[in-house]
Amino acid sequence: MEFSLWYLGLAAAFGLFMAWGIGANDVANAMATSVGSKALTIKQAILVAAVFEFAGAFLAGGQVTATIRKGIIDASSVESNPELLIYGMLAALLAAAVWLLVASRKGWPVSTTHSIVGAIVGFSVVGIGVDSVHWSKVGTIAASWVVSPMMSGILAFLIFMSVKKLILDKKNPLKNARKYVPYYIFAVGFILALVTLLKGLSHVGLDLSYGQSVIIAIVCGFITMSIGIYAIRKIKVDPELDADFRFGNVEKIFGILMIFTACGMAFAHGSNDVANAVGPVAAVVSIVKTGVVAQKSSLATWILLLGAIGIVLGLATYGWRVIRTVGKNITELTPSRGFAAELAAASTVVIASGTGIPISTTHTLVGAVLGVGIARGIGALNLRVVRNIMLSWIITLPAGGILAIIFFYLLKGIFYNGPAV
Amino acid sequence: MGKVKFGLHFQRGQAGRFVPQGNITMSSSYLSGIFGKSPIKPLQEHMEKIVSCVDELIPFTEAVIAHDDEARAKHHLNIVTIENEADALKKELRLRLPSSLFMPIDRRDVLEVLTMQDMVAGSARDVAGLIVGRDMQIPDSMADGYKALVKRCIDACHKAEDAIRELDELIETGFGKLERKRVGKILMKLDVIEQDTDEKQIVLRGKLFKLENELHPVNVMFLYKVIDATGEIADRAQRVGSRLQLMLAR
User: Which chain B residues are Cβ-neighbours of A365 within 8 angstroms?
Assistant: First the structure.
């Protein structure tokens, strides 16, 4: 194919740029709750984010990547002109990355997922044709954007209610916290491991049966649980902390739990959002390599690695400052509710990752926070801001789409010399 | 489009409130925007102010009984000053409670409790104002009884404050049953104290009745008024409690 090296180079560059943008801006939303509730210091949060974003992207990012790469566009529609898909995917990447950059600068609530999906749908409708889009798949994805915040909200509500019943609303909350918090830690390890094992690991050479996966996930749960128990044992009760507010020491134990849910959150975010950067790259790479729009070929490991590295780069160069800023402003969330929101959001996102559905981590987290609020756990929530975040896709989808269309025709004008379409 | 524009406007307002430290130009601080300012802390701070205002009545009363005009003036001024400070806190909190806030307690209940708290300080100011305004003396035979009444009324205010202090724990436990019971117990004690102040008022009025022939009639009238106004402090403290109870019942 003509210009193959160009295509590969551009794809890698745009993909890295997008991943950088995700690491620089998006990760903050996943980590800020932990920093805000003082479960993690900034340094710890950055370390956790780097390690678990990377792990999530690399180990569990494959399913959503496959959806972005070949689930939204019907490949048969571009069989005669595979280059069109290359331009489109490059344009979508650039569009989403640029939109993310602009919106973040302005402080607008945007979701990378909405940007990239809008961009892909946009270029394929205008550049290829309305029939080129798998509308049923897009419909499923759009529905999941409504369902995922609701699901994580309900989960968060139930988790917080269970905390209330088991720990907070008891005669001796401290004793009960020591007793029950390890089980929540178990849940974090178990859920993350299970979803990853069930869906993700064939590309790193691990093919496990369902039973094996469950057993390993249980083992993972117990390992995290014992680390948690050890950490909880090390906590010394500080009577001064309870002088004014009787739950000071209880919150310290939830702080341990929140370290684990923060890891889960970073992992979940990496697993779902890396696809926004590397999905289009994977599509370009497979067309360039095979010359056709292959639906069967599997994902090259280095592409996921590229995305994972990009996210960590974004985090290291810029994201840590955003985490600090956002974290500083979230002071009303104590670990006992922060963990409930994070566990619910992380579980929802990871399940979506396992099923290959790209969802917005931020929306899912906002849904979870609202769930805790409905359980009467949070002093005050700003419904106006919640609404603005939830409605942001109304502008993000067309913005991503229009930008992608512009870039698509630009790239087509530069590179295309095949038959007119 | 309109909605989104609204959102952008809000972001700017938000940025004005939380000025990020350092020179960060790019930030996605919209997430932190979903957490509104909880009214609980300001409500508790307001109550703290109210109680410190009411507390001034003890040295004030002692000064009145000791005929120490200088000390009386000083503590009267303190009462007025603290009451004004509490007023400022009240106004600030009212402004900070937009109806778009989603809270575990009803917004109207918060405002009602706030009003009740405010009225407690108001009656302390009334008592001091009455006494200073007419340069009143408490008859010697009533002095101890009146001091005891003032102290008991202030006890009621402290109990009400204890209950308001529990709001932290109420939120923390998601308004758990146990915590609500705990608050209920505090409020029951508040009721007992309030009844006690009623009895103390009856005794005092009896004493005053016996003195009626010895005192100037206008003074007698106003002494009755002072007793009433003092009892009102405990009444209003109790009303703070019952408003809180209503808040919990929802």
Answer: 31
Nearest to A405 by CA among A152, A94, A102: A94
Q: Are B20 and A328 in contact (CB under 8 A)?
A: yes
Q: How far is CA A236 from CA A96, A233, A249, in A?
A: 48, 8, 9
Q: Which residues of B touch A377 (CB under 8 A)?
A: 104, 171, 174
Contacts of A106 in chain B (CB under 8 A): 8, 11
How large is the C-alpha radius of gyration of chain A?
22
Computed on alpha carbons and rounded to an integer, the radius of gyration of chain B in Å comes to 23
Interface test with A, best of B35, B101, B111, B167 (most A CBs within 10 A): B35
SS3 state at A252: helix
pTM summary value: 0.88
A306-352: per-residue pLDDT in tens? Answer: 999 999 999 989 888 888 888 887 877 889 999 999 999 999 999 99
Confirm if A107 and B15 have CB atoms less than 8 A apart.
yes
Cross-chain residue pair B31–A330, CB shorter than 8 Å: yes
Among A177, A191, A366, A357, which Cα is nearest to A261's? A191
This model of the complex carries an ipTM of 0.81
Q: How many CA atoms lie within 13 A of A128 on its CB side?
A: 28
CA-closest candidate to residue B11, choices A389, A113, A98, A398: A389
Among B17, B18, B34, B110, pick the best mutation site for testing chain A contact (most A Cβ within 10 A): B34
| Helical packing angle, A27-36 and A335-355, nearest 10° | 160
At position A280, the amino acid (one-letter code) is P
DSSP string, B136-163: ----HHHHHHHHHHHHHHHHHHHHHHHH
